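Handout, section B. The chain below has 259 residues.
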Amino acid sequence: MNRNQCVQGLILSVKPVGEDNRLATIVSPEKGVFTALVYGGRKGKLRSSVTPYHSGKLWLYCDEVKKSIKISDFDVTEYRTGIRENLYKSCGAALCAELVIKTQSGIDNDKTWYLAKGYLDGLHLASEMECKLGTLRFLWRFLDLLGLQADTEFCGFCGNPLISNSGTSPSNMILWYSTTDNTFLCNDCIHSGDISSFIKIHHQGLHYLHSINTASPAEVRRLILNPETVQELHELLFYLISRFAETRLKALEAGIGIL
């Protein structure tokens, strides 16, 4: 068996191992999420290149007997230095990396690779305000990756359409998300009871989520949201990702008041 491999890789995290080595966690379309050692990481030429959020072509040496992988070389094609220059972007990137690592890239390595790579590209290139909307889109797409997106088109109880074909329903129309059933509901299907099990979302917000799935990325980026809708989507999506990740997300805790 050939022990040498060449794969595309995105560095998610790096931590020291012993005095001179480091352990990198990587996501790759070929291998999913895996760890690899960088020997002599403190002084070697790989120290500056094997850095969180860099991506490119990785050369690996795989030892099946020892069940270990070593990075032999790394040709970086995307450095994304803009992420480290902004606190919000740094927190967003940390959340992205933690989600990919803790969910083990869902069930689709290719989609995980492109989703994480695209989000980090946006963090590197876009303004902070654009990044905040980009984070909402990333979280919604990540829920789809996990197979946990709620249907945005039809009411989960009565089956009536929630989104008009033209998307012209009044932006102030109130809809609801059921935390117990993971479904969106029309206003007519909300019954008296424990209101805490429902999260309010206006039509504009649900239409935005629907557009993320059905429109091109460029078309979605051109959509304009009012501040109330942005806040509603923020509360809903951060609630959902915290709930469905089924683990403590340290990046969210560290990013309180920033993300």
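Note. The two ends are 46 Å apart (CA to CA). Compare this with the example in section A.
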